[in-house]
Structure formats: structure tokens, C-alpha cells
């Protein structure tokens, strides 16, 4: 029984090694970039749709406010002429307009809130995509330099080394500490 278990482990390990070799990192990275671009495209379309909806709601709200003002002026004219029979339909239109306006305002605020929530997320995702593209470019450059036998080691060739953000932050803190120690 132990022999069969060991053989099955060996076969699984070999199978996983073959799959690792088949799964080229540059292809996986390229696929991840494509998927992120598609997701970003959907987010951009959603943001544009929210912008159009917000514009439409603002226009309708403005139109209702204009109608409300016209109804107010018409009501003033009817009351000045002591024509209550004409004032009643104007009051009805005014009440209807006020209710439509009351219904539009929360929808506009919700749309504004949704847009305000989506815009920073889109910017963050675009930043992540740019970072992933930069990583892919670095990976491509590294794979090209590895495949070129005439190219020497990048550390010795004077190529710029990759500096991480954390290293910059640590160096900044050290420089501040040295400066404070001098003063």
C-alpha cells in the first residue's frame, strides 16, 4: 500500500512540474492584464452611464423647478383675477410638479453618491493595471536579457536596479534621522 501511495505522489509531482513548465508566467501575466483591461472597460462604461444618468436627472430636476416657478406665477395671476376655477388646475399641476421634484432629488443624490464611490475605485484599478503592465515590461525585459547570451549580468552592466517603494521610504526615514541628529 505504501508503495502505491509513494508512486501516486511521484506521478502527481511530475504532473505538477509539467504543468508548471507549460504555464508560462508571461502568458499568465498577459492574460491577467487582458482581464483587468476588460474589467476596467466595464467600469469606465458604468461610470459614463452614471454620468449620463446624473446629467439627465439634473436636467429633469431643472425642468421641474422651471415648471414649478411657472405654475406659481400662473397661480398668482389666477388669484389676482379672483378666478378660483382656473386656480384649482394650476394648484394640481403645481402639487404634481412638487411631488415629481421630490422624487427626483433622492434619485439624483443616490446617483451622485454611486458615481463618487465608483470614480476612486476606477482610478485605483487603473493604477493597479499600470503597475501590472510595468511588471510585465520588467518581466519581458528580464526574459529578453536571459535569452540573449551576449548580454552580461544587468548588475555589472550598469543597468538601473529595481528600487522598491519600501526601500525609498526607509532611505527617507534614515535621511530624516541623520538630519535631526546633526541639528
List keywords for this structure.
183 residues
Described by strand count, sense and barrel closure, the largest sheet is:
none
What is the percentage of strand-forming residues?
under 5%
Compute the average pLDDT: 83
Radius of gyration equals 33 Å
How many helices? The count is: 4
- The strand count comes to 0
Shape: elongated
What distance separates the N and C termini? 74 Å
Task: Give the H and E element order.
Answer: HHHH
Low-confidence parts: 149-159
Tell me roughly what share of residues is in helical segments: over 70%
Which secondary-structure class do the elements indicate? mainly alpha
Structural write-up:
There is one protein chain. With 183 residues, this protein is mainly alpha-helical. 87% of the residues lie in helices and 0% in strands. The protein has four helices and no strands. The N and C termini lie far apart (74 Å). About 6% of the residues have low confidence.
Write the layout of secondary structure elements.
Blueprint: H1 2-22, H2 25-80, H3 84-147, H4 165-182
Quick synopsis:
With 183 residues, the chain is mostly helical. The chain has helices at 2-22, 25-80, 84-147, 165-182.
